[in-house]
Amino acid sequence: MSIRHHLSDPLLIAYAAGTLPEAFSLLVATHVSMCDTCRAALAAFETVGGAVLQDSAVPLAEDALAAAMARLGAPEKREAIAKSDAGAKSDAGAKSDAGAKSDAGAKSDAGAKSDAGAKSDAGAKSDAGAKRLPKPGDLPAPLLDYIGGDLTAVKWRSLGMGVRQAILPTSKGASARLLYIPAGQAVPDHGHRGTELTLVLQGAFRDATDRFGPGDVEIADEDLQHIPVADAGEPCICLAATDAPLRFSALIPRLLQPLFRI
Ligand SMILES: [Zn+2]
């Protein structure tokens, strides 16, 4: 996998420090599991962070770094991690602070209840596209752990023109969603308030800034008004994390915004 667009150092440092909102942690953990470059950079930041902690006389468990790295999900360790992490929700979940954790816990409880009825409906709807979705083994381990199954396990909603999204339950402060963009299709023009990270899981998209393929991360701030268009040939599937609601330029998508929670 030749990744050209990486996470920024501030993002990796914040992730190492455990200060990112859960949605961003999930995206960072997922990219890091796909990217040797960022995994190495993160290891360096974790080491520095550990040294800083030791300097300030806060004891750090001897195996803390090893444990942190193990949770990052090196590709060759996926199976082992999948087994050992059975209880832990995900790396992203493990990294969020205690407050966020209990919030996330409460959410997933609520989600479990309300999803029970909705699941069969969502499952039926997504069956048509299921053939073209990545197989569970093709999904990065942190994301697979987080959604607790493959891409048919999440609740897809149509955004029109074949574009679909699935909101993932995360703690407050940022939101995470999966985006499915049919081959050759554009996502409605939108700007941002705050920051939006988009990680390509499958396929590719292009916008005014560049082309983004598997593993690439686009870091968009509120100045970027962009129209991502999926490459022809195969659908593009992305994981996106946003720290504020998107602003769609067109009126109708804006009216739909509260409905879709994006
Ligand atoms: Zn990277």
From TrEMBL:
Region (Disordered), start-end ranges: 81-135
Pfam family, any one: Cupin_7
Comp. bias regions, Basic and acidic residues: 81-130
ChrR-like cupin domain ranges (all copies): 150-241
Name listed for the protein in its UniProt record: Anti-sigma-E factor ChrR
Species per Swiss-Prot/TrEMBL record: Cypionkella aquatica
